[in-house]
UniProtKB/TrEMBL annotation:
Recorded topology in the membrane: Multi-pass membrane protein
Species for this entry: Solirubrum puertoriconensis
Protein name stated in the entry: Amino acid transporter
Xref: Pfam families: AA_permease_2
GO MF term list: amino acid transmembrane transporter activity
Membrane keyword on record: yes
Length: 493
């Protein structure tokens, strides 16, 4: 239960040497990183899944509920990011507020969040690739486009089972090769594709609006089937829990704090700015998509936008948007991989994971070995797990991280009320408490098997912590000579 002091964290952020990341990101870079990952699989794939299975046209209300929960958490993230500009996001914040064990739990949870986040996008990328190539008469074997747990019905009525989602595997490996060469180059690449993705969303909204069929909105909130989460108001809550996945972009911005210029000022701008931009776009996008096509048509589809576009006369728009989505998805995978490797970097630097993951490449100044290992792991995840499973797992992992950050703000306001804060969460304790309640409601609205997967993942993490991390913790061994505070208030050197 040892905790890191704020002074120790600030000294770690300021230190230089072989375990230091290069500061190269300005406020616009950070907003672009946030927008780059927010506008992705959640918008172009999970929106349709949520509408078909839980909300109907009221998926727009699910976005509003999720955005409100995000806003509370984003304000708390912004305060922490301005206080402790260190890589690691919620992991680092938990280390300062609740102790090493909780930090490990949330760090391990973030590994899950970013892993399944990147895998979800890669799977959806594969689906859109298949549609894009089919327009040119190229049909990839369906066995190589699905996980072993999925089936597809052929034109002749026969059923084919998947072997591996090969395109999803290959795109993860390709993006890993890009990010190992440096954060600044990755940021420029991300900024270009983000501009393209925002343009695609705006074009879809503008052109699709005039072809909305009002009949598709009847009823706007379909009646509940008698099962919690299947339409009705409970469906809106469950839909919010599913589409909450799309808002993890500002969370990933927080992991980049140690690579940001003037992080005390720029981190809050990046976190809150990316959330505001995307929330408006999401509501409009969901409204147009469910107006173009009936929500039942999106069932079991990872490419619902393609279905909606078919309802318009713009044949060229379908090809152009799918092509732009393919390019844009790469930025989502890129940012997820960046965020996850930075969490591994922080945990390894603290001794909780093998030190190889804290090694920075002398030329590229990136955690090369972390990137390679995680890229391999995520590529296998994308190749062998269905999209609805990874999407729900990512949502519950994200929500748990947000709860911990909101709790952390309450603790730090009590323990160190006078600590320097470049940004202060307004209306404390109301905002953190509302963030906790909103996130917990959405967590409990998710299916029971999602909770089982989360508990299984955390159980694996606890085994690793007590077998390795606890024994090798630099804070526990007294290797960190700067000030650290125990729960009882005693000081260790």
């Amino acid at each position: 239960m040892l905790k890191k002091s704020l002074e120790l964290l600030r000294q770690e952020a300021a230190e230089s040497g072989s375990h230091t990341l290069k500061r190269s990101l300005g406020p616009l870079n950070l907003i672009a990183i946030g927008v780059g990952v927010i506008i992705g699989a959640g918008l172009f794939s999970l929106t349709g899944i949520a509408a078909a299975n839980h909300t109907g046209p009221a998926v727009t209300l699910s976005f509003v509920v999720a955005a409100v929960g995000c806003a509370f958490s984003a304000l708390c993230y912004a305060e922490f990011a301005s206080m402790v500009p260190v890589a690691g996001s919620a992991y680092t914040y938990s280390y300062a507020t609740m102790g090493e064990l909780f930090a490990w739990i949330i760090g391990w949870d973030l590994v899950l969040e970013y892993s399944v986040g990147a895998a979800t996008v890669a799977i959806s990328w594969s689906q859109y690739l298949g549609k894009f190539l089919s327009k040119y008469g190229i049909h990839l074997p369906p066995q190589l486009m699905m996980s072993p747990w999925e089936t597809a019905t052929q034109a002749d009525g026969s059923t084919v089972s998947g072997l591996i989602n090969l395109p999803a595997v290959l795109v993860v490996l390709a993006i890993t090769a890009i990010i190992v060469r440096g954060t600044q180059g990755s940021a420029w690449f991300n900024a270009i594709v983000v501009a393209l993705k925002v343009s695609v969303v705006l074009v879809f909204i503008a052109l699709g609006w005039q072809y909305i069929d009002p009949a598709n909105y009847q009823p706007y909130i379909p009646a509940n089937t008698g099962t919690f989460g299947e339409f009705g108001w409970s469906g809106i809550l469950r839909g919010a829990g599913v589409v909450f996945f799309v808002f993890i972009g500002f969370d990933i911005v927080a992991t980049m704090a140690q690579e940001a210029k003037n992080p005390q000022r720029n981190m809050p701008i990046g976190i809150i700015g990316s959330l505001l931009v995307c929330t408006v776009l999401f509501v409009l996008f969901g409204y147009v998509m469910t107006g173009l096509a009936n929500y039942t048509e999106f069932k079991n589809s990872a490419a619902p936008v393609a279905i909606a576009i078919e309802k318009t006369p713009y044949g060229w728009l379908s090809t152009a948007i799918i092509g732009a989505i393919l390019i844009g998805y790469t930025s989502v995978i890129l940012v997820d991989l960046l965020g996850q490797s930075r969490v591994f970097f922080s945990m390894s630097r603290d001794g909780l994971l093998p030190k190889v993951f804290a090694q920075v490449h002398p030329k590229f100044q990136t955690p090369l070995k972390s990137n390679l290992l995680l890229g391999l792991f995520i590529s296998l995840f994308a190749g062998f797990v269905p999209i609805h499973v990874v999407g729900e797992m990512c949502s519950i992992g994200t929500l748990l991280a947000f709860v911990m950050v909101c709790v952390g703000v309450l603790i730090m306001r009590k323990r160190e009320p006078n600590a320097p804060r470049a940004f202060r969460t307004p209306w404390v304790p109301v905002v953190p408490i509302l963030g906790i309640v909103t996130c917990l409601v959405m967590m409990f609205s998710l299916p029971g098997d999602t909770w089982l997967r989360l508990f299984a993942w955390l159980a694996i993490g606890l085994v690793i912590y007590f077998a390795y991390g606890k024994k090798n913790s630099k804070l526990g061994q007294g290797q960190l000579v700067k000030t650290a505070v125990e729960p009882a208030g005693n000081t260790v050197a």
